[in-house]
C-alpha cells in the first residue's frame, strides 16, 4: 500500500493514511534514535512507544516494520549511506542518522511507497527535528541513494 495510492488503511481515508504514516515515521525516528543512543532491546523500545502513544493516530504495523527493519538491517543500510557521504554513518548527528536509515530502509524494502514520498517525509522530519540546514545534507544523500536503489522509478519521474 502506498501513501498516495491507497484508499484506506483500517477504514481511514487517503489523507488519513498519509497522516498516520507520517506520524509513524516520526515515532520510528524517535525509537531508532533511542535505540542508537541506549542500545536497549528494540522490542522493549517498540513496546514503550506503543504504551506511550495513541495507537489510533499512527499506523502501528508500519511503525513496527520500520523500527524492526532498520534495527535488523543496519549494516546494509549504512553501506548504502556511506557510498554517498564523505564520512561514516556513525559520525552523522544521531537524529539525522536515524532519519537517513529509515528512509534508506523504505527505499530498499517498501517499493509500494513512492521514492518522492520517502524523500519528502525525510526532509520534512529533518526540518522539524534537526539543525537549520541539515535537510540539505539529508536530501542530497537520499537523492543519490534513490538514484541507485530506485533508478527506474527516479528516471521515469524525471523524464
What does this structure look like?
It is built from eight helices and no strands. It is mainly alpha-helical and 159 residues long. It has one domain (14-158): NusB-like (N-utilizing Substance Protein B Homolog, Chain A), CATH 1.10.940. The chain is globular. Residues 1-12 have low confidence and may be disordered.
Low-confidence stretches: 1-12
Oligomeric organization of the protein chains: single chain
Strand content: under 5%
Give the overall pLDDT as a whole number: 91
Along the chain, the helix and strand elements come as HHHHHHHH
By DSSP (H or I, 4+ residues per run), the number of helices equals 8
Range of helix content? over 70%
By CATH, the superfamily comes out as NusB-like
- What's the CATH topology label? N-utilizing Substance Protein B Homolog, Chain A
- Tally of distinct domains: 1
Structure at a glance:
71% of the residues lie in helices and 0% in strands.
Features:
159 residues, mainly alpha, N-utilizing Substance Protein B Homolog, Chain A, 0% strand, globular, disordered N terminus
What's the layout of helices and strands?
Elements (H helix, E strand, L loop, with lengths): L13 H25 L3 H11 L7 H13 L1 H9 L11 H16 L5 H15 L4 H16 L1 H8 L1
Helix pairs in contact: 1-2, 1-3, 1-5, 2-3, 3-5, 4-5, 5-6, 5-7, 6-7, 7-8
